[in-house]
Write a structure and sequence with these properties.
This protein is mainly α and 232 residues long. It is 55% helix and 2% strand. It has a two-stranded antiparallel ribbon with strand order 1-2. The longest helix has 27 residues, at 205-231. The model has no long low-confidence stretch (mean pLDDT 82).
């Protein structure tokens, strides 16, 4: 299992979403109106809202926030000067740690680090977000959240008593939980969600799937131990 807390937290969030708001079309019913799974997400509307939210920065000439990890060699030729600066700033902030390199027993010699300094020579050349840009980001996020709240759907509540009366099988929240071992296993909706989630932690989609699968396996083992303990 990964030792990075942000990756573990993100993987647990993905598992919770898969439990309560799965990406399939199977009808599931909570037992009580206060159940956390009484509301469900309209994933088609989520995808439209997320795509609109992500495109706002591209339209303004900036890299899409969170998509820096997806930049490949061929993309460099299409980046503007400002976009290249944004990518390098992100790379330095995410991956470069000069103090660790200097202080590590096998770190690079200080003379070598000084020959290849990181960061901008003139910090004043950086393009900090203006108040208008920050306000535009906040408004875009608010629009996305409002859109999603307006399109939340309510599941029909079926108590255990009503389920027995109907004598028909009732799928409960968390049933038919889907595990994804590789990218090819993802449906279109599931892939869009996992790509968005992985971009939040600046990690590759395959790495997120591995982290989720590792935690799922650990949870299965814990559940198996609980069942065995109850049977004794």
């Amino acid at each position: 299992m990964t030792s990075l807390p942000e990756v573990t937290l993100l993987a647990l969030l993905v598992i919770a979403v898969k439990l309560y708001y799965p990406f399939d079309a199977i009808d599931r019913h909570p037992r009580w109106a206060t159940d956390l799974g009484v509301m469900t997400v309209n994933w088609d509307r989520w995808y439209e809202a997320q795509r609109e939210y992500d495109s706002r920065e591209t339209a303004n000439g900036h890299l899409e926030r969170g998509n820096e990890i997806k930049v490949e060699e061929k993309d460099v030729f299409d980046l503007s000067g400002d976009q290249m600066d944004e990518y390098l700033d992100w790379f330095e902030k995410t991956w470069v740690d000069e103090e660790r390199a200097r202080n590590h027993p096998r770190g690079y010699p200080e003379q070598l680090l000084d020959m290849f300094p990181t960061g901008r020579q003139d910090p004043g050349l950086a393009h900090p977000a203006t108040q208008e840009e920050n306000q535009a980001d906040d408004e875009a996020l608010e629009r996305k959240l409002r859109t999603m709240q307006e399109h939340l759907e309510v599941r029909k509540v079926i108590s255990d008593r009503d389920a027995k009366k109907s004598r028909l099988p009732v799928n409960r929240i968390g049933s038919y939980y889907k595990r994804y071992r590789k990218v090819e296993d993802l449906s279109d909706t599931a892939r869009h969600f996992h790509e968005t989630a992985s971009s939040l932690a600046a990690m590759k989609l395959t790495s997120l799937l591995v982290a989720v699968m590792q935690i799922e396996q650990k949870l299965i083992k814990l559940r198996k131990k609980e069942v065995e303990a109850q049977a004794v």
